[in-house]
Write a structure and sequence with these properties.
By secondary structure, this protein is mainly α. The protein has helices at about 5-20, 30-45, 50-65, 85-100, 105-120, 150-160, 165-180, 185-195, 205-220, 240-250, 255-265, 280-290; strands at about 85, 120, 125, 130, 220, 225-230. About 55% of the residues lie in helices and about 5% in strands. A two-stranded antiparallel sheet has the order 1-4.
Amino acid sequence: MPLRDVPFVLDRLDWMRTEGIWPNGLRYLWTDAFGVVLLVSLYEETGDRRWIDEAEALVAEVDRVLGRRRGYRIGEAPDRDGQYFHYLAMWMFAMARLGAVIPEYREKGVAIAKAVHKPFVIPGTGVVWKMEEDLRRPYPGYGLGALDAFDGYVSYRLLDETALSDEITEMRGLMDQAWPDLHITQDLGIGMMLWMAGFFPREDWAKTQVPRCLSTLDEMWVDPPGYFCRQPEAREVRFAFTNYGVTLGLQAQDTWPDRVERTHTLFDAYRSGDHYDREAITHVMACVSHLPGVMLPRGS
């Protein structure tokens, strides 16, 4: 069963705010997308409307700081320029989940999808990994994203299958080209694939990717002390935020609860000694893994 550790989340949120880490730190689209969903999960869990008020305030701040005429900048820091499609897709997912409470956010998510789909998607080929900030051309030095079509497909379907039917069809075509031979070997990529597959478990891509990902992930389990390494060939490399992404995916698949617990035991108190110790992405993703809530399919 998915975790429902509200006390952990409330304590970590209080600490982040006191330290000026989140939501009162620098904006970063990936972290803020997870954060919006976390706030909706807190509302669903507690019934306290203030969490929806905080989610709306966060969306407004992301719009103000990162919003562009089409899409959203990756982050506020100077080195986080350009746009990533998978970040945009996660933001659209957040709009779908907030939109379940306030419908106008679902409409907002559809509008974002309509604005960014064509600039990123090369029909019959793939989805550009990173675009320049104005979406006029691909960012120099980047190719296609391996999971981006899956990201878009899931978010589009959860937003509005009718309004985005053409875009969904295009993404499904790209997925069908990719999934039979796709072998993911990066920890966070595996976690996100397991998470996405949880929404459409009966579809062929999900039925293939879940066991394939779990098999690779099993090779990446390092015990002791109990963590998932970055890649099978990098067993000493570990990151807290990517491990929380893995444990989210495992909860979406309702599998390996013992490893989820072991991973949390290690990383909840872990200090890497680098900038990630105070990065919002580490702590927001920790909260989401401790309270996945509406990050997961309804009924999970």
